[in-house]
Design a protein that fits this description.
The radius of gyration is 17 Å and the shape is globular. The strands form 2 sheets. A 7-stranded mixed sheet has the order 4-5-3-1-2-10-11, sandwiched between helices. α1 packs across α10 and α8 packs across α9. By secondary structure, it is α/β, with parallel strands linked by helices. It has 11 helices and 11 strands. The two termini are 24 Å apart. The chain has 2 domains: 142 residues, Rossmann fold; 110 residues, Rossmann fold, CATH 3.40.50. The structure holds D-glutamic acid. The site of D-glutamic acid has 17 residues, from α3.
Length: 263
């Protein structure tokens, strides 16, 4: 039987990661879990996020996945440094995202955008400093951006206005490397570029995780699968709105199966 790669996010934003991985690994199957019923994680305490996260890791393990990717940045901050869950390889977005930003910065300045939980944890700042102490890090919580994405307000003057407010310090300091430390932000990339300028280098979780996954195959920690691929999207709440949004975020990649599950 084909073994899928598990991906976990607090909602549908992580489909931005799944879409990249589905394209780059066309023979692999994926089992995505979006905890829509309890979204947002970004304003919750580390204890609550970890409790939810452990339930989801257990669910994915019971689906017999061969690896688990924590695409959610807020959840990644509470599983930092943990490379496996009950024998299953576990990837998070913080360390590879920080390393990718260090690789592209030309002036040792990096900005991090994220939810309140991610920014409050200082997980990116601390990881960046551990890897490269000389880097100047500017952190910015952008709590209004997630609901704007959930409402489909892409390429929208309101989103641009909100982004202008959050990004003013980053613009003033001329920071040209920016980590998109939230699964939802790649969806509004065009709005962010309007504010930050075309030359900004945006570090996105999808690309970073694709490189991490590739390394797991190269090191023979993961074995490629044969046969017909499945892209299963499990969410903890399902409405017409979420169904539409899920297909929209994944297009042109196709979801084989979208179902509501109970944790
Ligand atoms: N998935 C979350 C993250 O990447 C954003 C949405 C939320 O607040 O739950 O941090």
């Amino acid at each position: 039987m084909k073994k899928a790669i598990g991906i976990f996010d607090s909602g549908l934003g992580g489909l931005t990661v799944l879409k990249v991985l589905a394209k780059k690994f066309p023979n692999e199957s994926f089992c995505y879990l979006g905890d829509i019923a309890r979204l947002p994680y970004g304003n919750k305490s580390p204890e609550t996020i970890r409790r939810y996260g452990l339930q989801i890791l257990t669910y994915l393990k019971n689906q017999n996945v061969k690896a688990i990717i924590i695409a959610c940045n807020s959840a990644s901050t509470v599983f930092l440094g943990e490379n496996e869950f009950e024998g299953i390889p576990l990837l998070n977005v913080i360390e590879p995202g920080a390393a990718a930003a260090i690789a592209v910065t030309e002036d040792n300045q990096i900005a991090v955008l994220g939810t309140s939980a991610t920014i409050r944890s200082h997980a990116y700042r601390d990881t960046l400093h551990r890897l490269a102490p000389e880097i100047k890090v500017t952190e910015q919580a952008c709590p209004l951006l997630v609901p704007l994405v959930e409402e489909g307000m892409v390429d929208d003057p309101i989103t641009e206005l909100v982004a202008r407010r959050y990004l003013s310090e980053i613009r003033e300091q001329n920071i040209s490397t920016v980590i998109l430390g939230c699964t939802h932000y790649p969806v509004i990339k065009s709005d962010l570029i309007k504010v930050l300028g075309e030359e900004v280098k945006l570090v996105e979780s999808g690309d970073v995780l694709a490189d991490e996954l590739k390394a797991l195959y190269q090191d023979h920690i993961l074995v490629p699968d044969e046969g017909v691929r499945q892209i299963r999207v499990c969410i903890t709440d399902l409405t017409d709105h979420f169904e539409r949004l899920a297909h929209q975020l994944m297009a042109p990649e196709k979801i084989s199966d979208l179902e509501r599950i109970v944790l």
